[in-house]
Specification:
The chain is built from nine helices and five strands; from the N terminus they run H-H-H-H-E-H-E-H-E-H-E-H-E-H. The protein is an alpha/beta fold. The structure holds CO-5-methoxybenzimidazolylcobamide.
């Protein structure tokens, strides 16, 4: 039997082949994909984060761990689908300007896609003006902003302000998320909602469009 600790250890050890092998093994053992993601990969990345903070892991290593996680998310993608669909809602998602973290944002995009929404993933380090342009171009009903750094949270407010100034605020629901983000912060900056994880982001988006 493979266990989740082994995945966490392999992730912390930046052993991409081992992480992939363990994930495939758990899939073969019929372990739920959501458990592999939450108890194995995300829990492992939390340890990576602690080590990074303590100076026990450095950026190149963290990137390797992130790449290993990204590869496994691709493997899990078809197994993480949701059953209820949310019609053809048009969603724009991106990580705000100054922030390069994208694993969590990509998970949110994936969950929304598998719930039937059309997701335009703009990537990372996205300027407020680009979000505004894309709302117009894609005729979006929902916009999701991700930030992983306390220093880039203010950019969420700047993005909300840019949407208000563009006159498009009534057209879109603005959802925000990312490890340092809270519901209180969403209220403070005038967003429509906060989601702590990818599953709840998808559910919240569905509630708002239906
Ligand atoms: Co960075 N990093 N990082 N990093 N990194 C954190 C975030 C940190 C907490 C690590 C630490 O010190 N403990 C810390 C932030 C401290 C803070 O601000 N409070 C940090 C730092 C300091 C930095 C740098 C400044 C380091 C440096 O250069 N000295 C630098 C900044 C670069 C930049 O962005 N400008 C940096 C760089 C990097 C890498 C590039 C090396 C790499 C990112 C690679 C990539 O994303 N492609 C990286 C990584 C991997 C991390 C950690 C270890 C893992 C992040 C992750 O992918 N988690 C992270 C520590 C941690 O979070 N434990 C850390 C897994 C992912 C599934 O979870 O992203 O939280 P998460 O997403 C969740 C929810 O938050 C939510 O759903 C997701 C899934 O359930 N969610 C949303 C996310 N977005 C959402 C949007 C929504 C809704 C929900 O919209 C509606």
């Amino acid at each position: 039997m493979t266990d989740f600790n082994a995945i966490q250890e392999a992730l912390v050890g930046c052993d991409q082949d081992k992480v992939t092998q363990l994930v495939n093994q758990l899939i073969a053992e019929k372990t739920p994909a959501s458990d592999i993601l939450n108890k194995g990969l995300i829990a492992g990345m939390d340890i990576v984060g602690e080590k990074m903070e303590n100076g026990d892991m450095f950026i190149p290593e963290v990137l390797m761990a992130a790449r290993a996680m990204g590869n496994c998310v691709e493997i899990l993608k078809p197994l993480l689908g949701e059953d209820e669909t949310a019609g053809s809602a048009n969603v724009i998602i991106g990580t705000v300007k100054g922030d390069l973290h994208d694993i969590g944002k990509n998970l949110v995009a994936m969950m929304m896609e598998s719930a039937g929404m059309t997701v335009h993933n703009l990537g990372v380090d996205i300027e407020p003006s680009v979000f505004v342009e894309q709302i117009k171009e894609k005729n979006a009903q929902i916009i999701c902003l991700s930030a992983l750094l306390t220093t880039t949270m203010p950019m969420m407010k700047q993005t909300v302000d840019a949407i208000v100034e563009s006159g498009l605020r009534e057209q879109v629901k603005i959802l925000i998320g990312g490890a340092p983000v809270t519901q209180a912060f969403a209220d403070e900056i005038g967003a429509d909602g906060f989601a702590p994880d990818a599953g709840s982001a998808s559910k919240l988006a569905k509630t708002l469009v239906n």
